Amino acid sequence: MKFKKTSLVLGICCVALFFTLLVGCGGQSGKTVKIALQAPITGDYAYEGQMAKQSVEVAAELINKAGGVLGKQVEVVIVDDASNPKDSALAAQKAVSQKVAAVIGSYGSSVTEPAADIYEKNKMVSVGYGCTAVRLTMDKERTYFFRTCGRDDAQGLFFGKYAVETMGAKRIAIMHDNSTFAKGVADEAMKALEPYITEGKTEVVYFDAITPKEKDFSAAVTKLRETKPDVWYFTGYYPEAGLLIRQARDAGLDCPFIGGNAAINDDFVKIAGLDVAAGALMTQEPLVTDVTTDIASQFKSLYQEKFKELPSSPWPVYAADALYAIVGAIDKAGKLDSDAIAEAMRTKMDGVQGVTGALLFSDRGDRRDVPYKMYNVDPEGKLVVSEF
Amino acid sequence: MSRPVFFDKGKKVSTFFEQLVNGLTVGSFYALVALGYSMVYGVMKLINFAHGDLFALGAYLGYSLLTGATGKITASMGLWGGIGFTALLVALSVALAGVLVERIAYRPVYPSGRLSLVVSALGMAIFIQNAIMAIWGSRPRAFPASVVPSLRFSLFGIPVTLLQVTILGISFALMLIIWLIVEKSNFGAAVRASALDRETATLLGIDVRKVIFFVFALGPGLGGVAGLMNGLYYRAISFNMGWNYGLKAFTATILGGIGNIPGAMLGGLILGVVESLLAGYVSGAWKDVFVFILLIAVLIFRPTGLLGEKTAEKV
Amino acid sequence: MNLSSSILKRILHAPDNRGGLGGTQRRRIGIAAAAFFALFPLLPFVDNYWIDVGFYVGIYALLGLSLNIVLGEVGLFDLGHTAFYAIGAYVTAILNTRFHVPILLLLPVSAIAAGLFAWLVTAPIIHLKGDYLCIVTIGIGEIVRLSMINNPLGLTGGPNGINGIDNPHFFIPILSSRQFYYLLWAIIGISAFLLTRLQRSRVGRAWNYIREDETAAKALGVNVRHYKLSAFVLGAALAGVAGNIYASKQMSISPESFTFMESSLLFCIVLLGGLGSIPGSVIGAFVVTVFPEIFRPFAKYRLMFFGLALLVMMIFKPAGILPRLRDSGERLRKALEGKKTGKSRPNAVPVVETDRAEQKLLLCIENLGLSFGGVTAVSGMELEVDKGRITALIGPNGAGKTTVFNIITGIYKPMSGRILLRGKDISSKQPYQIAEEGVARTFQNIRIFPSLTCLENVLCGQHSRGKAGFFASMLRLPSQRAEESRMLEKAQACLARVGLSDSADSLAAALPYGKRRYLEIARALAAEPELIVLDEPSSGLNDAETVELAALLKSLVREGLTIFLIEHDMNLVDMVSDHVVVMQSGKKIAEGPMCDMRQDPKVIEAYLGSDED
What we know:
CATH class of the largest domain in chain C: Mainly Alpha
Number of domains of chain C: 2
Shape of chain A: globular
CATH topology of the largest domain in chain C: ABC transporter involved in vitamin B12 uptake, BtuC
Largest interface: B-C, 53 and 61 residues
Strand order of the largest sheet of chain A: 7-6-8-9-10-13-14
Low-confidence stretches of chain C: 1-20, 340-357
CATH architecture of the largest domain in chain A: 3-Layer(aba) Sandwich
Distance between the termini of chain C: 28 Å
Helix content of chain A: 40-55%
Oligomer: heterotrimer
Mean pLDDT of chain C: 85
Distance between the termini of chain A: 78 Å
Largest sheet of chain C: 6 strands, mixed
Structural class of chain A: alpha/beta
Number of helices of chain A: 14
Strand content of chain C: 5-15%
């Protein structure tokens, strides 16, 4: 009896393994061009991963309607990295095994790092869409890694300039949440402020972290209030941002709130409540709503049609742009060879357009000319570009 | 990097009290969740890891009731009536869920011992958390402002919200009620007897199954209401909110002395206050490190928690 | 509902010592599994992805093995094991990226660093019980993870972690998935081999004794603190090795890999596989890693299924997939025979024979006092036990008899007074030291080690008579083998002495009640004590069995043993005792031969005056 049970369990394991092996096989078939999306479909940033998946699917549909690439249809293969470095390495290996032409991904910087190493080793082009850490392109020479999103330092610089020169802030508070991304932007903002500090134009009165996934930040905002900041920059994510701003207003902190580009979206407004969210500022690349290119309007209408809403954060759109970039590069290269694609990404991207505009890359793989804008939440709760 | 900013003394003192109130609010949530942990532990000697996720379930059920198709509740009963009625429904349904969890995940595993129970409890926690994600989605949900009472006023110079006062009040009332039930009533005596020694309790004619039913209904029911209150207070809920509260409440339970009802309350409140003072005066980034160091330090000197009785080894 | 009774219940699910598969079947499956793991990467349809899955199965198997030492062997709730894994990974990453120390050289360094760290953090808290230890380990896990995030001294790279970690060089650079796979599985093979040796040694058994019954273990000479700490250190060191390999394979590490969830996963691996079972840890790792991979296509339902699967496993297979099989005496002996055993040295019994003749007084208790929270249990107790005699301690319930025993054996520390053994004060010594001094005991409410075999139970007595440590046991040095075979012999002799030879290989839990008493006595005898302390040996025995017991006790005394017992059964006391001490309310009220005690008015009053008994 006991023996049967155990062998049953073992048997099931083996059979399951065998079938997955069968499923796992199969390479680049002739009819389609396979492109993998490595994204956090499960795990802590599952909402981002799922929106990225939807965006990439919409982009693929648009591309296919327009005739695909090299006369073939684009097929998107999803690999899940659960926003965890170990799963990321496995996901990358899986994408490699499926012999895709190139990979979109991934979202977080410390998750992208091991995956990028694997793609590099296997000579496969990967295009990150949410990984903004400077070191991804600056620490190591990577031939096959690109990204459609901007870098933390660009955003930090933009914030520093705006806060000091436009707002004339004398006392600046910077808050992050100890995640790779938020700490990265916060550190870069701090660096950008250093020249102003030496000139005596401003000072940083607060630099500390909150714990993500917590809900009560009243102690942190009370401490923040006591430092009497002129402006308060929070570089973390919107769930915390929404809670923070409301708790800060409740605690009587009235200084302008500026969020980093993961801090503000529709959910931020919902969580904070319109009364306090209105007027919040955000350093951000142009949102899909503010891009008026043809591709953007097609993308928006198809996305709206399929999912009854628009992506609530900028990153999924960069994932879609990563697909546009890859497809554009394949088109320019004229073949599915990784070296040719990488070469095309660096040098031949003139005229390749994505949802957010021209897709040009520097030698190190960073996207060129990512513009930053200051957005604010208008009284209706919509994100609009601040005029200044 | 942050330079100290000096204010007049009075201001500093009132800020300190403000931080204390902040800490008590956080702490009362920890305490409410810890209470459920502690009650279940007392009788079952089981760490119900799913408890935090039942708390999250309460928040989501409350969200759906207040905003969904049945969102007419607030319209017909007024804001407070609607919230009260929702709380009742949430308490009942999460209590039911708690009892189901016990039936499905714990009762069959009970004979195999505590380690297996820890794994099935972890399994249940993972299951509930991901079921919430599958049903309500992975993006955080926000309670619309229309269902959240909002009034801000100043109490002895400390800015507080009406909701804060209400939450503190309700938390303390619930804790007091639970404490009275467990410590003073006949049924409570049965619960305590079962906690001490299940076999002897059975011999004394106590229906231990009833007691188990009771703690698994009351603990999670309470946790569910705490979840709803948490959602209303912070307005935002997320599918993985249970882990954090679960872990902190478990810490609070141990800090106070596991299986000890006043200990759970004390542990929760102390933890909340300590966290808030650390975040307010030391460092937000290092806060949890210090919290755990403090816990370990307490346990080195009081190996069974603050109010836990030092039991002499029975040989 | 303590740990040992829970394990007992697990065992009772399995009718005999064959929790699932028999030994031979197991070995066959083991060989098949080893062959599978060895050939897997060479199979034609296995691509790098599946080799990498195999690699991560390996990482978890190694971590499972390492947690198994702490959780499986010693039964310590460790839900923060990832901390040690993280220390290993970070030490490797920091030393490699900053000082370019080669990865393989860092392998032992990581192990030592993780072990040292484990020693530092667990030494102050090792005395905590069950769930309290559990939360502290969770705390340690979180402290380590958060500290890595906060980038102390700029060493850990904050939330970004550290990148650019080298590949290992083992004559050739190890680069490909396949090479990593073989490197890792070779390490797992070696670890499993050494751990199996450890399981079959004095050290491994000591761990199990603690898991089964900590009090009994320490009363019989196991230095509980030492073995608990050593389990943590060894477990952590192995986790450090896993961290080293993980870091070099991944090339970058960040705190996100070392979360509480990861620790919980390790906990599940050990329990899914089977507590204390080495092949079980590998199977557990296999299930936990491969299962979610298979369910990846179901994306958002994946973890839901995983949670459900854990539940279902615990309901239908609570003892795990491959529960630990206990070794039979024959198997233990065979394991020793492999090569020639070293020369057998005489047992290191601390009692010098000449002492026996000179000293008549063996144990002397002077003015002993102890109270619990204001309630006096023992006060001003005086007592003497002569060598080579049977002394009985009697008295009404609650007189403090067992407390006296507990003080003698070091379980309680007296508040006043002294206990002299052969004229030497032992009152401040630890229980295991007292056992080493030659005092062995049995317990009122039998404390055997239920899920170990009878032979292993008795071997516990021999623990304090051996000294082979970790290295001797892992390397199976000649001295260790000689010691083991001597211990085996002695244990078998002791089992034979109480007539339990036939049950040597059956689990203690399977013994009927009366025989468990004898097993306890055999265990105490195996400690080669000078003084044996028996707490109500006749309780639960019928008349015939009591007579048998009396005969045994008398013959033991004839062989030179001294017996001190608590007894309620006056017939037994009458039959065996040379000297009787009567206690009431924590004090001695009378002493002398049993026949005098029956007439003593104080004794009569003590018994009649109290309603009990």
